[in-house]
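> call design_seq(struct)
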């Protein structure tokens, strides 16, 4: 560029007085061209730097998992699941089993279990008019008795058309009429039957397994195995998976060891396992789930704290109930919807230890666990679990962070 400008200046010097304006215009054009060229190169360089070094909050919650470590079946004995014990005070990891909890926990500790019951919410049918395949996931019944489902069908289905549901042996049963479509794939439908929704689901529904278990296809045994032994409040469309490890015998042994038990409810929703898709955790819109804790449970928790015992939440769902009920101060009876998103720098108010399964990457569940256990320690625990070939996700093994 310097040579070009120098040559242009020479032309001006030798042609002074003749053609001056044309030469000056040529010089201006040359300088402007180089200026815009350099500006374009600089903009490109800044874009490359941004692409290379821009970091999403979620990158810290990502990890690679060999597919063979995703548990496809539950163990024959629930309590035989492996247990990675994570000690926050000493930053140590120890290998054990869930059946050893009576020896790991302390007398006077209190286990808080989620007693929600998974409903067989997955429905299969066909469009009555065309025979096209249809699938839906029951979410709730509204105040008018209309069903809300997450649904899809082959071809666009107009309002007023009906779906004929089929039972597990593919025999035609009742019809659902489409009333309205809402955002997010939600269908509002009217069941052309006088039966309660839960009765219809018990007869026609399938267990809504997550897609990483046999592509979501249930087997008859899943009706019992994808359910905790203490489930009693129907309403969840996914299991509180940390509770799946407990057997009646283990619960009895825990109580004999001086470890108390109480129950809360959180109806686990479909969105609980979905990955976060925004770059900043602060921008994530947390899903809502309905929960409750009664006065008796609050009293037992207060008594446990009073004599120096620890509150051990079984599962992230129990954590969310306890922390929602303590959001405005001391723990109190509570029921309602919660969209509490526990993320750094959250300060826990009601939980001293957490028993939890290993969670999918880039999910709010993993964010909660890392917030409670500490980034470095939980990251190291996941690496150790993968190295030792623990079983992951819903039918997998567990970790105790204390």
């Amino acid at each position: 560029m310097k040579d070009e400008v120098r040559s242009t200046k020479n032309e001006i010097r030798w042609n002074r007085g003749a053609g001056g304006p044309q030469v000056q215009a040529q010089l201006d054009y040359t300088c402007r061209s180089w200026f815009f060229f350099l500006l374009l190169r600089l903009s490109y360089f800044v874009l490359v730097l941004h692409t290379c070094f821009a970091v999403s909050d979620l990158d810290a919650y990502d990890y690679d998992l060999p597919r063979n470590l995703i548990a496809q079946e539950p163990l024959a004995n629930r309590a035989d699941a492996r247990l990675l014990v994570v000690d926050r005070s000493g930053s140590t990891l120890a290998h054990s089993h869930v059946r050893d909890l009576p020896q790991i926990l302390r007398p006077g500790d209190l286990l808080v279990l989620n007693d929600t019951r998974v409903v067989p919410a997955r429905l299969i049918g066909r469009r009555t008019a065309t025979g096209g395949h249809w699938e839906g996931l029951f979410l709730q019944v509204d105040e008018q008795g209309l069903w809300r489902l997450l649904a899809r069908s082959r071809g666009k289905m107009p309002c007023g058309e009906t779906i004929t549901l089929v039972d597990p042996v593919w025999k035609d049963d009742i019809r659902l009429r489409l009333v309205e479509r809402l955002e997010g794939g939600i269908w509002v439908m009217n069941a052309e039957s006088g039966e309660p929704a839960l009765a219809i689901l018990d007869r026609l529904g399938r267990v809504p397994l997550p897609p990483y278990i046999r592509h979501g296809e249930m087997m008859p045994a899943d009706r019992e195995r994808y359910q905790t032994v203490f489930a009693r409040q129907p309403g969840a469309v996914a299991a509180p998976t940390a509770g799946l490890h407990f057997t009646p015998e283990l619960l009895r042994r825990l109580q004999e060891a001086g470890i108390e038990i109480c129950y809360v409810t959180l109806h686990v929703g479909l969105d609980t396992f979905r990955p976060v898709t925004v770059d900043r955790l602060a921008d994530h819109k947390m899903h809502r789930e309905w929960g409750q804790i009664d006065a008796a449970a609050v009293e037992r928790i207060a008594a446990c704290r009073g004599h120096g015992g620890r509150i051990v939440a079984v599962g992230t769902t129990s954590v969310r109930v306890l922390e929602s009920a303590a959001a405005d101060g001391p723990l109190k009876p509570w029921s309602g919807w919660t969209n509490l998103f526990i993320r750094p720098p959250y300060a826990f108010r009601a939980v001293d230890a957490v028993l939890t399964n290993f969670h999918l990457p880039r999910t709010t569940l993993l964010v909660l666990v890392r917030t409670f256990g500490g980034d470095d320690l939980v990251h190291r625990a996941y690496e150790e679990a993968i190295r030792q070939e623990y079983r992951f996700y819903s039918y997998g093994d567990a970790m105790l962070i204390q």
